[in-house]
Amino acid sequence: MNPLPPAEPGPSAFSDHFSAVAAGYAASRPRYPDALFSWLASLVPSRRCAWDAGTGNGQAATALAGHFDQVIATDASPEQIAAAAPHPRVDYRVAAAERCGLASASADLVTVAQAFHWFDVSAFNAEAARVLRPDGIVAVWTYALPVLGDPLLEAELGRLHDSVRSWWPAERRLVETGYRTLAFPFPELAAPHFDMTADWDLDRFLAYLRTWSAVTRYRDATGTDPVAPAVEPFTTAWGRAVRTVRWPLSLRVGRMQRTARR
């Protein structure tokens, strides 16, 4: 019988589930579609500065750098910042999303990629409103389980997910609802549908599975790898092929309202 998962931190605590696997996270996570960043850049009043909060390995930040003069990318984890991909227009900083240190009304765009559920949401929303320029854009997005396009692989992925279900941090439920239950006090814009895709062989896919926070917590607590029993059935079903893995994105986008002049 599996031991009980560890207790969850309080809502204001920094939930650090990735520092210990920062390098693997940077190497094994899929990339967001370029079309997402092009669309976001088309919405903003200018392209002087974007702030990427909870940047992790800098994946969104480096993509934003193709559209903005400057990107400030913050994360509360020094290890994640140390493993982030360098870019001449990305300024990486260790800082909490709720207290980022940016000047007021300094950013045209604020983004949160797969990290909103780790934040003190009310405090972050207030910080984003402070940092955004009038008519600026805030965008948060998330993704849950990948779509593999094969019933055998889907079934095996489901079994693995079930085996570690109790080890997901409590915040995982916010991912599975697409952030729809979280406060988002910005007038929302209709967003196109975006999928994240990756063409991977099985080794790359297994490396990705081992970056799941539930897998990391299980392994740290028990000393065993919950992915290991799935390797043989995945190998049988996957074969030697390179397959397209797809993650539908759940996206919320809002505009900072311009304050009426007195």
List keywords for this structure.
262 residues; alpha/beta; Rossmann fold; six-stranded mixed sheet; two-stranded antiparallel ribbon; 10 helices; 8 strands; 33% helix
Provide an overview of this structure.
The chain contains ten helices and eight strands. The chain is of the alpha/beta class. The strands form two sheets. It has a six-stranded mixed β-sheet with strand order 3-2-1-4-5-8. The protein has a two-stranded antiparallel ribbon with strand order 6-7.
Work out the number of β strands.
8
Report the CATH C-level class: Alpha Beta
Identify the CATH architecture.
3-Layer(aba) Sandwich
> How is the main sheet built?
6 strands, mixed
Shape: elongated
Rg calculated over all Cα atoms: 19 Å
Overall pLDDT confidence: 90
Question: What series of H and E elements makes up the topology?
Answer: HHEHEHEEHEHHEHHHEE
CATH superfamily: Vaccinia Virus protein VP39
- Could you tell me the CATH topology label: Rossmann fold
Distance between the termini: 65 Å
Quickly count the helices: 10
Domain count: 1
